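Structure first, sequence second, as always.
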C-alpha cells in the first residue's frame, strides 16, 4: 500500500515538474510607471542658408553646434504619451552686410564681414509620443516616434560683432514656429531608469533681413531643416 501511494504521488508531480522545466522567461515587461523626466545632450546639424534671389543664398542662420535639453512626459493611454521639452544650443552664425552697386542701388549683394557671432538658440516643444511596443519593453527596448510643434528663438540681442551693421541688415532669428518628428528608443537596465538614443528632425522658419532687399520688396523666408543626434537618461516614476 505504501509503495502504491508513493508511486501515485510521483506520477502526480511529474507533469508539474516537466512544465516548470519547459517554461521560458518572457522578453516582454510591462511598464507600470506613467511619468518620466529625461535629460540629454548631442549635436545639431543645421541648414543656415536663406535665398535672397533666384541665384544667391546667404548663410544667415545658426551653424552646427552642440545641443542640450530636458523633457517631461506623461502617459495618456495605451501607447501614447504627451511630452513637453526645452532645449538649448550654443551655436554661432556668420555676420553679413548688404553691399549696393554704385550704379544701381536696387542691386544688393551680401558682403561677408568674416566675423561670426553667438547664436543662443532656445527651443520649446510640445509633442505626442507613440510607443511601438505600447506600455511595455521588449528585451529591455521601447522604441518610439514623436510628432511635435513649438517655438525657437535666439536669446541674445545685438552683439558686439554687429554694432556697425545697420539695423535693417541685421539677422534676427525668432520667435519662430517649429515642427518636428523624432525617432528613438529607450533601453531599460532597471525598472525606473532608461538610456535613450534619439534622432531629431526639426523644421524652423527663418527670414532674411529686410536691408538685403530693395524698398517695397518683401524679405524672403524659408523653412530650414535641422537634424540632431542625441543621447540621454530618463527617470521613470
Amino acid at each position: 500500500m505504501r509503495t502504491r501511494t508513493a508511486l501515485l504521488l510521483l506520477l502526480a508531480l511529474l507533469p508539474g515538474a516537466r512544465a516548470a522545466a519547459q517554461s521560458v522567461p518572457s522578453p516582454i515587461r510591462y511598464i507600470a510607471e506613467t511619468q518620466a523626466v529625461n535629460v540629454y545632450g548631442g549635436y545639431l546639424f543645421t541648414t543656415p542658408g536663406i535665398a535672397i534671389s533666384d541665384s544667391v543664398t546667404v548663410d544667415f542662420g545658426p551653424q552646427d553646434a552642440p545641443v542640450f535639453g530636458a523633457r517631461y512626459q506623461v502617459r495618456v493611454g495605451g501607447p501614447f504619451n504627451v511630452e513637453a521639452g526645452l532645449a538649448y544650443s550654443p551655436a554661432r552664425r556668420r555676420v553679413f552686410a548688404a553691399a549696393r552697386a554704385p550704379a544701381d542701388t536696387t542691386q544688393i549683394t551680401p558682403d561677408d564681414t568674416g566675423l561670426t557671432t553667438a547664436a543662443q538658440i532656445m527651443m520649446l516643444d510640445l509633442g505626442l509620443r507613440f510607443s511601438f511596443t505600447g506600455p511595455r519593453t521588449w528585451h529591455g527596448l521601447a522604441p518610439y516616434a514623436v510628432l511635435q510643434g513649438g517655438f525657437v528663438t535666439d536669446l541674445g540681442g545685438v552683439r558686439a560683432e554687429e554694432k556697425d551693421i545697420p539695423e535693417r541688415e541685421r539677422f534676427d532669428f525668432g520667435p519662430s514656429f517649429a515642427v518636428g518628428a523624432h525617432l528613438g528608443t529607450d533601453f531599460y537596465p532597471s525598472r525606473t531608469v532608461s538610456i535613450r538614443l534619439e534622432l531629431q528632425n526639426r523644421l524652423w522658419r527663418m527670414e532674411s533681413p529686410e536691408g538685403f532687399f530693395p524698398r517695397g520688396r518683401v524679405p524672403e523666408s524659408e523653412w530650414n531643416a535641422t537634424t540632431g543626434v542625441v543621447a540621454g537618461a530618463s527617470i521613470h516614476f
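Margin note: The longest helix spans residues 2-22.
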